[in-house]
Amino acid sequence: MLPDNGNKEGRPNEEDPAHKVPLIETFEGSILLAGGSIAIVSVVGLLVGSVLSPEKIQIITGMTASHLVFGRAAGMTFGYTLGLGHDLVVPINMLIETVLVMLFYPLFVFSWRRVVVIPALKSFMDRTQAAAEAHQDKIRRYGIIGLFVFVWLPFWMTGPLVGCIIGFFLGLRGWMNLAIVLAGTYVAILGYAFLLKDLHDRAASVGPYASFVLLGAIIAVVIGAHLLGRRNQKKKDETDRSGG
Question: What is the domain extent for residue 101?
């Protein structure tokens, strides 16, 4: 059973000594700095690569954008469809997820502790927090294994960003939380790699444009799930307001 370092609602205490020291000296501050540094180095690498190998860098950039907008399945499928192999698709998508977690987790913690407020991210953080709160009681029953499986499962509103918030609510230490979340993410990406590459190869054997149809189908599913999730959330908000 995981420790619950929070109040009666299962949330961490908001009275935290982090505000008494410079943010950069906290665990979250160090993670944010590391994530930002990795992101900057990656962008510089893309700029240098665009001179040395412009065609490949264009594909990698497109894969990154697809991942950020539509999720890892779309991003990885984009890479396979445009001719990249496991040697680039897997590590690059692992890097993307790692940077996202290293940037999002400390920003959420700072926001929760009222240390830093970022209005532009508030809506996204609120949705992610709501999803985490909806799942934390189920995951608490199974402890660390439950969190790992939650991150690994390819369902809507599961994954590393929601997972790291759940780990925070469960009272996990920061390093343990990120280790579990990233381990589950890497295993999930490896599973996606074999599945999506096989689907790509099967589609390519049907016709030259079949792989693009597969990519379009994945994007359509993601958009449909997003719209459905927003509609359900809107209905829930309306029900809550009406007291139903």
Answer: 17-117+153-159+183-242
Contacts 24+ apart (CB under 8 A), 31-36: 31/102, 31/105, 31/106, 31/174, 31/178, 32/102, 32/103, 32/106, 32/107, 34/102, 35/98, 35/99, 35/101, 35/102, 35/103, 35/106, 36/103
Q: What are the tokens at 218?
A: 């994945």
Residues facing residue 12 across a β-bridge: 6
208-242 pLDDT, tens digit per residue, is: 778 888 888 888 887 877 677 667 666 665 665 66
How far apart CA 129 and CA 123 sit, in angstroms, is 10
For residue 114, give both structure tokens.
């009222």
Give 140-192 as a DSSP string.
HTTHHHHHHHHHHS-STT-SHHHHHHHHHHTT--HHHHHHHHHHHHHHHHHHH
Q: Which of 56-65, 86-95, 167-176, 231-240 has the lowest mean pLDDT?
A: 231-240
pTM of the full predicted structure?
0.79
Task: Give the chain's domain count.
Answer: 1
Which amino acid is it at 128?
Answer: T
| Three-state SS at 12 | strand
Tokens of 96: 């993307």
Residue 14 near residue 114, CB atoms below 8 Å: yes
Q: Which of 34-48, 113-127, 157-171 has the lowest mean pLDDT?
A: 113-127
The two structure tokens encoding residue 138: 């189920």
